[in-house]
Design goal:
- This protein is an alpha/beta fold.
- The protein has one domain: Rossmann fold (3-Layer(aba) Sandwich), CATH 3.40.50.
- Helix content is 46%, strand content 14%.
- It contains 8 helices and 7 strands.
- It has a 7-stranded parallel beta sheet with strand order 3-2-1-4-5-6-7, sandwiched between helices.
- Strand 1, helix 1 and strand 2 form a beta-alpha-beta unit.
- Helix 1 packs across helix 6.
- The protein is globular, with a radius of gyration of 18 Å.
- The termini are far apart.
- It comes from Paeniglutamicibacter gangotriensis Lz1y.
- Its EC number is 1.1.1.100.
- Keywords: Oxidoreductase.
């Protein structure tokens, strides 16, 4: 079965964290590719409406839903409204995320630890679980993109909670890919995306390790979009993410700490982190 996607005519695309940054860029690509319905989820109602207004009039029908991804009840309510309205999405882009850059013992248990795990990890599972049965049963070519991080492949100081949330995403997302294959649902492809730092403001102040410059959002989203349409299982950007992951796997831990800390500068990359204001 050829499951490569060309155009998105007739498709519904759901994007989380769609009010700004990468989410907004994904929405622009969905409109450009001719999606019939583009559904934008975000907690920022004002910014969400501004983005929707910019996208309207370009051929796609734009839908907005204010959703608090840290709350399962909010996800369930929004999903039910969507199913009763235009139906489950054909393309799901689990893009939303937050970061807290501090030592573990400095994290507040609710606003930092619980919020990070709820939004970065559990929300992706909950949203996918809401729509996956419909995506399976109707048999149409479908896609799920789960945005993880290079931080989910390598430990890093001042990223303990964020890294753990993304490690969990990688394990769950790639397991889901395998489960769909094993169960014979090859019409649904899962792409796990693991980027290094991207210039969206989310990681303001962070410094890219050696040979790993901060990524530009536009070419990154275009590359992810292509990977999604092709059904690429795993996408790491830039190439040094794959190299670092390989080295971490073969070097003794003490040797890797020297390479990552002193040579590549991975362990110092969050020293001047401020985040989005």
């Amino acid at each position: 079965m050829n499951t490569t996607i060309d155009k998105l005519t007739g498709s519904t695309v759901l994007i989380t964290g769609a009010a700004m940054g990468m989410g907004k860029l994904y929405a622009q690509l969905a409109v450009k590719d001719g999606a019939t319905h583009v559904v934008l989820w975000d907690i920022n109602a004002e910014q969400l409406q501004e983005t929707a207004n910019e996208l309207r009039g370009s051929g796609s029908e734009i839908h907005t839903q204010v959703v608090d991804l840290s709350r399962l009840e909010s996800i369930e309510e929004a999903a039910e409204v969507l199913r009763e309205g235009i139906g489950a999405p054909d393309i799901l882009i689990n893009n939303a995320g937050i970061v807290r850059g501090k030592y573990f013992w400095e994290h507040d248990q609710r606003s930092d630890i619980a919020a990070t795990m709820n939004i970065n990890t559990l929300a992706l599972m909950h949203i996918t679980r809401e729509f996956l049965p419909s995506m399976i049963s109707r048999g149409r070519t479908s896609r799920i993109v789960n945005v993880a991080s290079a931080a989910g492949l390598l430990a890093n100081p001042k990223m303990s909670v964020y890294s753990s949330s993304k490690w969990a995403v990688i394990g769950w997302s790639d397991s889901l890919r395998l489960e769909l294959v094993q169960a014979g649902h090859q019409h649904i492809k899962v792409t796990t995306f693991c980027p290094s730092y991207i210039k969206t403001g989310m990681f303001e102040g962070a410094r890219g390790p050696l040979l790993t410059p901060l990524l530009e959002p536009v070419p990154v989203t275009e590359r992810v979009w292509r990977a999604m349409k092709e059904g690429t299982p795993m996408l790491m950007m830039p190439w040094t993410v794959k190299l670092s992951s390989a080295l971490r796997g073969v070097l003794p831990l003490a040797a890797w700490d020297v390479v990552a800390g002193r040579v590549f500068g991975v362990y110092k990359s969050m020293e001047h982190f401020t985040g989005r204001k």
